[in-house]
Automatic annotation (TrEMBL):
InterPro entries: GntR_C (IPR011711), TF_FadR/GntR_C (IPR008920), Tscrpt_reg_HTH_GntR (IPR000524), WH-like_DNA-bd_sf (IPR036388), WH_DNA-bd_sf (IPR036390). Residues 26-93 form the HTH gntR-type domain. This is GntR family transcriptional regulator. Keywords: DNA-binding, Transcription, Transcription regulation.
């Protein structure tokens, strides 16, 4: 039987706060699920990374039951894979799956970005406040690129997108987009290897500029181009 490895001590989950053992089982499970889910969306777990129920339970300071249930849910969502030997790992990618995710992102994310401007119509102060937050995230992301820090890049890239998308106040769209990022998030780490030599326009800065100008056409174009660039770079690797 294939040995199931636990998460090492330098795991990106090692700094996540434990879950109170005296909490109700449903609450404990939900906290474990949400923290593991965020780690996958933000690219903190690389593709193919092996996980185990016992390892996750130890990381979060809980019993194996909530860890097992969190894994079960994420397997159902396609974020994790379970083999016939019961080995659990972060899901891998293939060409057809990548193409389908790309098409879905292009259909949903520019529309979600457009809804941000609808939500903040005639609210210049709110748009500026959001633009400042996004600019700070993007500056941190730029420093991660300079350091060649793939984990930090993936984290702040996802933070930029979801800070923008959450402002749309569109929970249905947001849930659909999150389900896509559960499958693509770990692969954002490979994009950084191609950014150092890129001379393309910084689409995040274009998006911030469009937000400030209340320009929906420019904003949706920036998000669309950002998706195309990222997914193309992922496709150029061995997925």
């Amino acid at each position: 039987m294939t040995e199931v490895k636990t998460l090492p001590r330098h795991s990106p989950l090692a700094n996540v706060k434990g879950v109170a053992n005296d909490a109700r089982p449903k609450i404990v499970h939900e906290e474990v699920y949400q923290k593991l889910r965020r780690a996958i969306i933000s690219g903190q777990l690389e593709p193919g990374r092996t996980l185990s129920v016992r390892g996750l339970a130890a990381e979060f300071g809980v019993s194996t039951m909530p860890a097992r249930e969190a894994i079960r849910q994420l397997v159902a969502l396609g974020a994790l894979e379970l083999t016939e030997t019961r080995r659990v790992s972060v899901a891998q990618m293939n060409e057809d799956k990548l193409s389908e995710i790309s098409e879905a992102r292009l259909a949903l994310e520019p529309e979600l970005a457009a809804r941000v401007l609808t939500q903040l119509k005639r609210q210049s102060a709110a748009r500026e406040k959001l633009a400042i937050k996004l600019s700070k995230i993007d500056a941190t992301l730029d420093r991660a690129i300079e350091r060649g820090d793939s984990a930090a890049y993936a984290r702040y890239n996802s933070e930029f997108h979801f800070k923008l998308y959450e402002a749309a106040k569109s929970p249905v769209y947001l849930g659909l987009v999150e389900s896509l990022w559960l499958q693509i998030g770990p692969f954002m780490r490979v994009v950084i290897g191609r950014l150092g030599t890129s001379s393309l326009v910084d689409q995040h800065k274009e998006a911030v500029s469009a937000l400030r100008a209340d320009d929906v056409t420019k904003l949706t174009k920036a998000i669309r181009n950002d998706i195309l660039e990222g997914m193309t770079n992922i496709a150029r690797t061995d997925v």
